[in-house]
Amino acid sequence: MPNSERSSGRRFDHDYGVTTHAVLFLTDLEPEAVGDAGAHATHYEAVPVAEFRALLAHVPSELVARATFVDIGAGMGRAMLLASTYPFRQVCGIEVSPSLYEIAKENLANARVPKRRCKDLRLTRDDARIWHYPPGDLVVFLFNPFDAEALRPTLASILGRREPGVTWIVYHTPVERAEIERIDGVEIVAEERFGVVYALPKTSRSFCE
Ligand SMILES: C[S@@+](CC[C@H](N)C(=O)[O-])C[C@H]1O[C@@H](n2cnc3c(N)ncnc32)[C@H](O)[C@@H]1O
Known about the structure:
The chain has helices at 3-16, 26-29, 31-34, 37-40, 49-56, 61-66, 78-83, 98-110, 148-159, 177-181, 205-208, and strands spanning 23-24, 44-45, 68-72, 90-95, 121-125, 136-143, 164-172, 187-192, 195-200. Mean pLDDT is 93; it is low at 204-209. The protein has one domain (3-208): Vaccinia Virus protein VP39 (Rossmann fold), CATH 3.40.50. The relative contact order is 0.15. The protein is an alpha/beta fold. The strands form 2 sheets. It has a 7-stranded mixed sheet. Strands 1-2 form a two-stranded antiparallel ribbon. S-adenosylmethionine (SAM) binds next to strand 2, helix 7 and strand 4.
């Protein structure tokens, strides 16, 4: 992790009064509790603040106002807290690790969020591959949570949700981007050195059939 990222992560924790700055392997934390998800997970690391904001800048404000933000692999809650400074309708997070979930819950409850714009934050301990994604418009955030084998069923769950609306994916460190780019009709809206922003078609035969 570059020094500049480390110091901006520490600044975030100081300003928000939380602990999110760490690098941890899920399988070292609680292999039994996460089950098979552990075999596909990368590691815990919080998203670099400036890079999160640079990617979110590509999401139109009209969509932000209508959409639910979903952080897939919420970790200690940094991306959820950052998302709450935008006027999303709701901010959700799914985290498979019981201990990271507990830390995120405490962080969300105690954070001092400067310029909070969304107060409806919901954190769930579950497996993102099989979660019931909310209906309507979604801005889905991924900070490289898992491999292609786990991303595939996750995308199927997102695209197969009831009453789907517009779906955008903001993917930081898009190691498994090929899985998204093979969806019929997917559009690359923006690309930065550290991530990609996609607009998905409303339904996709390749995943829903
Ligand atoms: C790189 S961290 C991202 C943390 C957070 N999104 C952020 O940006 O600060 C990836 C997270 O994904 C979680 N994860 C991995 N596989 C998962 C799964 N199948 N379901 C839910 N969470 C998962 C890990 O436990 C880890 O907390």
